[in-house]
Amino acid sequence: MNAIARLVEKDKNLSVLILMTVATLLVLVSLLGGRFLSAGNLQSMSSQVSEFGFLALAMGIAMLTAGIDLSIVAAAVLAGIMGAQVMSGQLVPVTAANAPVLMVVGIVVSLVTGLLCGLLNGILIAKLSVPPILATLGTMILFTGVSMVVTNGQSVPVAVTAFSNLGASTVANVPLIFILMVAAYLVVGFVLKRTRFGRQVYLFGENSAALRFSGVRNDRVIIMTYMLIGLLVGIAAIIMVSRVNSARVGFGESYLLQAILVVVLAGFNPYGGRGRVISVALGLVLLQSLQSAFTILQFNPYVKNLIWGSMLLLVMIVNYYVARWNPRKAGARAALPGAGTAGGTGSPDATGAMPAVASPAGERAPDPVSMGGTR
Predict the structure, then answer these.
(1) Strands 174-175 and 170-171
(2) Alpha-carbon distance 290 to 219, whole Å?
(3) Are 96 and 114 in contact (CB under 8 A)?
(4) 3-state secondary structure labels for all residues of 257-272
(5) Terminus-to-terminus CA distance in the chain, angstroms?
(6) Cα–Cα distance measured from residue 95 to residue 358, given in angstroms and rounded to the nearest whole number
(7) Which of 13, 150, 218, 284 has a CB 3.0–4.6 Å from the CB of 374, allowing a cystine?
(8) How many CB atoms lie within 10 A of CB 267?
């Protein structure tokens, strides 16, 4: 019991998420059985979660800095469209000889477009002190407008066959894009936890003033962070286009709210400075498992939205009460003589002194100013 209490106290949100994920998987397996655990369904789940997984990770990184990125889907669509334009044959006719070159150029164009979108967001937030929610709301509209102008609202097909096969490629029956997503999570998790830049990202979200007084340029941290987000968005764009063999405005519109849902499930603090990559991965498992079950059960799309909203509210309520619960304080009260009896919290010892009860460590209140960008 003490071991469980120590685990919960160390990371309460992660403990709640693990419990919810395990309970949900057990219920789905008991209800759906072989339909849920079939090789085809698991492969389909891993393919569907890949492109969305990069966007959820990008949103989580933004929240670590006490910000948010509302433009991730619009930037991914723009990056996908720019890459698809290169591989569509509209600019340069696609032949068997130049197809590999066009494929490489298209991938690079998508990555560079994502990086430029992230750079623009970083400059607006770091240099112009625009609040992240307003900066990314503006760029979301901007990126969507650019995509509309480039495509005239039409879909851009991909004529390079090798690129189209990328989304369907497997390694030992595991989708290649899923392996790519797992590798990205491992790399980003290492960067955030084990590198100087990662510690600066956490410290910026927790106390940007302390980071500035330590000699670190806050604007550089923010710009680099949003460029990292842009790189993840560019990779997501490549996966999106390879899976559907085309790019168009409006694709993946629901991903934005789902990304926010996953990050909230993962226990990220909207005031910054708290969150784990492993928690995002667990949130993805939970969300994709439910999504797959909804598909198998042929749920109405409106019912899906109801369940997503109910789950979000439930998690916030559970996290609120778990955050208030202190296992050590509860254990200390239970150990006191007379604990649980009416009229007091303890009895004096032989000397007449009341037994000492360790008070819980205080938690720093979040800085409401931190939502506004750099200081």
Answers:
(1) antiparallel
(2) 39
(3) no
(4) HHHHHHHHHCCCCCCC
(5) 44
(6) 74
(7) 218
(8) 24
Q: Which of 269, 225, 222 is nearest to 366 (CA)?
A: 269
User: Is residue 91 within 8 Å of residue 219, measured between CB atoms?
Assistant: no
Which DSSP category does 202 fall into? H
Residue with tokens 């590798």: 183
Global pTM reads 0.82
**How many Å apart are CA 91 and CA 25, to the nearest integer?**
48
Ramachandran sector of residue 72 (left: φ over 0; alpha: ψ -120 to 50; beta: rest):
alpha
Give dist(CA 8, CA 268) in Å, integer.
Answer: 16
Neighbours of 324 (CB within 10 A): 8
Q: Is 217 strand, coil or helix? A: coil
3-state secondary structure of 156: strand
pLDDT in tens, 61-80: 999 999 999 999 999 999 99
Per-position pLDDT tens, the chain of length 375: 455 556 556 667 788 788 888 998 999 999 888 888 888 888 888 988 988 899 999 999 999 999 999 999 999 999 999 999 999 888 888 888 888 999 999 999 999 999 999 999 999 999 999 999 999 999 999 999 999 999 988 999 998 888 888 888 888 889 999 999 999 999 999 999 999 999 999 999 988 888 888 888 999 999 999 999 999 999 999 999 998 888 999 888 888 888 988 998 888 888 888 889 999 999 999 888 888 888 888 877 777 777 777 777 877 787 677 767 665 555 555 555 554 444 444 444 444 444 444 444 444 444 444 444 444
In 3D space, the residue among 78, 103, 45, 85 whose CA is nearest the CA of residue 233 turns out to be: 78
Q: Are 21 and 279 in contact (CB under 8 A)?
A: no
The first and second tokens of residue 244, run together, are 């559907």
Output the six-digit token pair for 228.
């990292």
Burial zone of 363 (CB within 10 Å; 0-12 exposed, 13-18 middle, 19+ buried): exposed
Question: How long is the chain?
Answer: 375
